[in-house]
Design goal:
Elements lengths: L1 H17 L15 E13 L23 E13 L2 E15 L6 H6 L2 E18 L10 H5 L5 E21 L5 E3 L20 E15 L3 E12 L14 H8 L1 H7 L28 E13 L13
Antiparallel strand pairs: 1-2, 1-9, 2-3, 3-4, 4-5, 5-6, 5-7, 7-8, 8-9
Amino acid sequence: MKFTSKLIVAAILITQAGWSQGFLRPNEWKKYRWEIYGSIGSSFFIGDLGGRDVAGTLLGPADLDILMTRSSESIGGRLKLARTVNVSVKMAHLCLRGDDAETKEPVRNNRNLNFKSNVFEFTGRLEAGIASRKRGANKYGIKRNYGKFRRITNELYGFVGIGAFYFRTQGRTPENNWIQLYRLHTEGQGLPGGPKQYSRVSWCIPIGGFYRLVYNKVWTFGAEFNYRKIFTDYIDDVSGRYYDPKALDAAYGPLSSFMADPNKGLIPGATSPAADATPAQRGNNRMDSYFTVEFTLGYVFKQKRKSARLRSKF
């Protein structure tokens, strides 16, 4: 019976230790407030170009084309405000891609537009979550005797923030060369009746969550999902309607008119104006969006103790 009792007690202690924060003193977390981390993973685009074999982009994430997955990398810093409340800043670089040729949906496949874009992003966010930890003081020396088990913390956080990003969008020519689309004004930006030129800098709102495992209070390993609500529809250089190709030729050159409408001709008149001279729709004017799934590695800096000053009794 005594042996069985000892096994049960040991099992309970090990289980609790495996899920313990290790911050047994009320303010011990304040010694571990600053963290730097890096992330690497995949980026996904949701917008006008490419998509699954269905019409339109109103399906949102359901229209995602997995084959257009590209890479993302980021570095960041985190400050703990409370036990499970943080602020974080992050710099990221990611690639986005879309190609009508990859979808079997007839209208979009015939449209035959494509793009790739490098996105450089800076965001700040507020994080709040839960963490597995043991509360209360250690009165019986358990920490001293079983400290070797108390090394792993499990944390789950949600976050929201604000940020800005810069994007550079390119299109592929029939010769398989990539060229900058911004300078080609493919929807008649700046011409009579056309939209104004879009900005390559825009705002975003990152929304998501992450799980992380903290080892020995200083090493962190995790996985993060980060969706961005953005405020531009031109990451893929497509938003509104087709512009008169002759006017594009005269103003910006033949490459502009070609990149604006490289359709395959499989649907006659698909990109031509309607009978009332209304230009054909080129894109959906809903805002684009993108998200990333990343794995993270971080290091938490332990605050050094301040040396106590000896006070003279005299």
